[in-house]
Amino acid sequence: PPAVVAVFNHKGGVAKTTTATNIAVCLAARGWRVVLIDLDPQGNATAGFGHTRLPPVGALDVVAGRCGFAECLLPTPFADLRLLPATEALRMAELELAGDETAVQLLRDHLREGEAIGLADMVVIDCPPSFGMVTLNALYAATAVLLPTRPDPYAHDGLLNSWYEIKRLRQEAEADVHVAGILLTMTEERGPLADGAQAIRAEFGQQVYPTHIPGDVAVAEAAQLSLPVVVLDPDGGAGRAYVAVTAELLARLHGD
Amino acid sequence: PPAVVAVFNHKGGVAKTTTATNIAVCLAARGWRVVLIDLDPQGNATAGFGHTRLPPVGALDVVAGRCGFAECLLPTPFADLRLLPATEALRMAELELAGDETAVQLLRDHLREGEAIGLADMVVIDCPPSFGMVTLNALYAATAVLLPTRPDPYAHDGLLNSWYEIKRLRQEAEADVHVAGILLTMTEERGPLADGAQAIRAEFGQQVYPTHIPGDVAVAEAAQLSLPVVVLDPDGGAGRAYVAVTAELLARLHGD
Ligand SMILES: Nc1ncnc2c1ncn2[C@@H]1O[C@H](COP(=O)(O)OP(=O)(O)OP(=O)(O)O)[C@@H](O)[C@H]1O
Ligand SMILES: Nc1ncnc2c1ncn2[C@@H]1O[C@H](COP(=O)(O)OP(=O)(O)OP(=O)(O)O)[C@@H](O)[C@H]1O
Ligand SMILES: [Mg+2]
Ligand SMILES: [Mg+2]
Hints:
globular; binds adenosine-5'-triphosphate; binds magnesium ion; seven-stranded mixed β-sheet; homodimer
């Protein structure tokens, strides 16, 4: 089955979507057959590939068994990268999946036993900033979770919460997802964000990727053009950093 | 009953908590008896008043009827400002409240008919970055909703989604909450964020507050010290702006 990387942090606005999208593009550029799954009802990753309206069928339909994995995949402008899009229906997913203990494993069953096996080498999942049934589906399906965090005080709290939530899943619910590192995003050279970055490195040591993603105006410029920043400005701060982080992620996944 | 202002945007990381906290402090400084309600399971507003651990009883207990409004309120360092804190239990609130159509009105009943009437002139609610039962409780209870948004492409999408979700609530569900304006946050003078701000002003006109909240390093410095930025640096960019926006909000609430 494919390696499945969930990109998660309970805190909002820490660059989960920016990270998931750019890493998926970089993995595909290296020749891996990649599927990016957008599990966020906001649909930013789906919009990031030019879909101004969310498609009628997508990720929740696969999770709920209404549609096969292969038939819901959309092509992207990048060879070897396909998208399982967010849909409007994701907004009601928490209610649709509530109350059914087994519903947390739906996506896992599709990715680990179903059709996905022949279709992709790597799956990247963009998670919403919440910790409900949708995120649980991602974390049960994932073999690894990447925790992006902006080094500010609230996001630092969010990182700690997310870290403990994942530990609890592994211990109590026998989920096998392991943390594939902490990625510092939107960092600055000086000031409170630089202090925050140092504090997180001191606290989490090797878990933090050596490469951080600097604040870079090209990220918003790229989003305006529905392009990943690694494509719009590969030699810029964020572009180069995402290329380097993809290599570091692969090294961690393969246990180097 | 008190005026109830929900601070909401489905998009994560747009300064909902920073805005709710600073406006609550400014309103209290003007002599209004204010209660800040933290409905976000992340508990950033609660941590923002120095609570390193979430208290055992709080907002969800009031919503679910397990605790009276008055007995759950915590004092803050600011006279006339009290906090109804987030608790760990909020993490399971979506599941606890799911499946019960009437559960969306629980907070509204407490704020409009219950004890809150004698206790506060203004209530400010910090919402999570999601659109489930917890946020619905806030929007049904609110008389007005303030929509903070960072002028970047994803948050612009989030603003449009949030705007339509509120319109739909008013039309289909007879909620009486009205939009009390759009607040541009973390803005810049030039570049894509300045372009985004201009686009939002062109699209929403008078709905957008004349004052915007500039990007200001003092916001993260203040969060590190568990202080609102209007207290740490009242003469700085964000500090002055939040004071001005509070006056603009009051003018909109009183229909000037
Ligand atoms: N390296 C960067 N430099 C500058 N801005 C950035 C960077 N990374 C992300 N951003 C900006 O920060 C905002 C938040 O990023 P993004 O939407 O990817 O975060 P998220 O964690 O997915 O948010 P949500 O919690 O709402 O899903 C984006 O609008 C983006 O423009
Ligand atoms: N005017 C500003 N200047 C600089 N940074 C800011 C400003 N306002 C907010 N921030 C930073 O942006 C981050 C996000 O703000 P905040 O946590 O208030 O947003 P939020 O919408 O409440 O996020 P969530 O969706 O996770 O609840 C904070 O860590 C804060 O440091
Ligand atoms: Mg996102
Ligand atoms: Mg918040």
